[in-house]
Amino acid sequence: MHIKTPRLFRNRCGVFYFRVKTATSDRRISLRTKCPQTAAIIALGLNANLERKRAMAKSNLFGINLDPETLRQYEIDLKNGIFKAEGKEDNDLMNSFLRNQGIDLVAIESLMKAGNPAPMQVAAAATESSPTRKSEPLIAAVDKWLANSRGKNVERTVEGKGYHIKDFLIRNFAHVETVDRWLAENEKEDSRKRKALRSVEEKVASNQYKYPNIEVNAIDKLLLVEYKNTLLAVPQTAKTIDNKLQSLHDFFKYMLGHGLYTAFTTNPVDGLFIQDKAARTKNTKAYQPFTAKALKILFEPSAYLEKMDAPDLFWGPLLGIYTGMRISEATQIRCIDVHHAQENGVDYIHVYKSKTPGGIRNVPICDALIQLGFLDYVAECRAAGAERIFPHRALINHSHSKELSATMLDYQKERNIKAPQTSFHSFRVNVITQMHNNNVNAGKIMKIVGHENGEGSAVHWGYVRDLPDLKPVVDDLIWPIDRIALKYSGRFRGFLANKTKWPDEKPEE
C-alpha cells in the first residue's frame, strides 16, 4: 500500500526536498537523497517534529532546526542490501516504512547469513516467501475492540468510540471492500444503510475496490501522522482531535494486549496528542453552582409553573437540587425504582444505571420532595400503567434528558441567569457544596451523589439499613424555594390518564 508522505517533494533532478509553506513563507530544504525510502523516513521525522512544536508552543514553524546536516541519517541501498539507521527510534521508523513497501528486513538478514550472494534478489525472495507475520483483519479487530469496550464503558462512551473509529476508517480505508461494507452495515437509518450496501455491491461488480480486505498491521505511524494532519487541516479543535486519537490509542492498546497487532511493540498513537493530560485538565472548565439569587429566580413559582409544563420539566430540576442526581439519572427513573423501606420507613430512589460504577446507589427522598408531592406523582404514574415516571420522553442517544436539557437552557436565558458553566449539572455542584458546608462526612456525600473515591473505586451504596444515616443529610438541604406555591396537586393527572400510548423506545438494560 502506497502512503503519500506530507510535505515531501522531488525536484527535476530527482533529489527529494521537504517543503513548509505558510501564508507568508515558503521554505524548501533539500534532503540530499534520491532514495524514496530514505526521503520518506526523514520527512516522517520532520513532520512529527513540526506537529510537536506546533502543539506545544503554537510558535513560528520556522523556529525549528531543519539544517540538513543535523538530520537523522539513514542509508537504504536495495541493490547492495544495505539498511542502516541510528538508534532504536530511527530503526523502528525505517522498519515500519519498509514493511509498507513489502520489504521484510528480518527475512533478508536471515537469507544473507545463509550466504546468498545477490542482495537484490534476496530482497525479492524475502518479500515473496517470507511475508511479515500476519495480524488480525482490520474489521474483525474493530468488532472485538468495541465488544471489549462494552464490558468496561457505558453505552454512550462506546458509541463515541464507534464514531471515532468510523471517522478514521472513512478517511483512510474506504477503498477496502470489507471496511466499506462494515461502514454501510453500521448506518443507523435503514434507508441510508440500504443505499450504502447497494453502493458496495455496485463497486464490487465493477472492480472498484483496490483491496478486498486489509489487516491491522497496515496501520502504522506514517498513516496516523497523516490522519492527524488531515484533522488539523479541517480544522477541528484540539480537544476533538485528541478525543479521536484517544479512541485510536485505546484500540491499539487492546490490539497489542491481545497479540492482534504485530507491526510495533509500542502503541503507535503515543506522541501524537496535541495536549498532555495536565494541559487537558487545566483547560477543562468545571461546572459552577447556581448562586442563591439565581436559584430563587429559577424556582420563582409563577414563571416556573408556566415554563416547566411537562412532568420531567417540573420534577427534573427539583430532583436535581434535592438529590444531586445527574440529568440522565433523574430522567430515567422507573416506577419500580421508587421504594419504601419497611424496616426503617425511609423512601428512596434506586439509581440502577449511571455514568460510573459508583453511581449505582440508593438515594433517600428528602422531606422537601415528599412535601412537594413527589410520591403522589409516582403513585399516579403507577396507576396510569406507566413504566417510567416520565413516560412521554423517548430514549434519544441513550438518555431521556434531551428535552429537559434544552428547556433548562432556554429558561436560564429567559430569566437572565445563564452564567458561564451553569446548567442542570450545577444542581449537583450545589448539593455537594452545601453538604460539605454542613460538615457532612465525605463517605456519606459520595454514597448520596454517587462519587468514586480518589483511587477510582466505587463507594458501595450498601444496604437499605444505611438509609437512616443518609436521610438527615438530604433533609438538611435548604434552598430558596417556595414549596407551598410549587406543591404538586395532580396537575399532570389528566395528562397521564389520557395517554394511551407512550413513545417507542429501546429496551432498558
Number of helices, counting only DSSP H or I runs of 4 residues or more: 23
Query: Strands of the biggest beta sheet: in what spatial order?
Result: 1-2-3
Main β sheet profile: 3 strands, antiparallel
CATH structural fold name of the largest domain: hpI Integrase, Chain A
CATH architecture of the largest domain: Orthogonal Bundle
What does this structure look like?
The chain has 3 domains: 8-101, no CATH class; 138-275, no CATH class; 292-498, Intergrase catalytic core (hpI Integrase, Chain A, Orthogonal Bundle). It starts with 7 loop residues before the first strand and ends in an 11-residue tail after the last helix. With 509 residues, the chain is mainly alpha-helical. Helix content is 50%, strand content 7%. The protein has a 3-stranded antiparallel sheet with strand order 1-2-3, with helices on one face. It has a 3-stranded antiparallel sheet with strand order 6-7-8. The chain is elongated, with a radius of gyration of 30 Å.
Brief descriptors of the model:
3-stranded antiparallel β-sheet, about 500 residues, 3 domains, single chain, mainly alpha, hpI Integrase, Chain A, 8 strands
Outline of the structure:
With 509 residues, the chain is mostly helical. It has 23 helices and 8 strands.
List the topology elements.
Elements: E1 8-10, E2 16-21, E3 26-30, H1 36-57, E4 74-77, E5 82-85, H2 87-100, H3 105-113, H4 119-129, H5 138-150, H6 155-173, H7 177-185, H8 190-205, H9 221-233, H10 238-257, H11 277-283, H12 292-298, H13 301-307, H14 311-323, H15 327-331, E6 338-340, E7 347-351, E8 361-364, H16 367-372, H17 374-383, H18 402-414, H19 425-437, H20 442-449, H21 467-475, H22 483-486, H23 493-498
Antiparallel strand pairs: 1-2, 2-3, 4-5, 6-7, 7-8
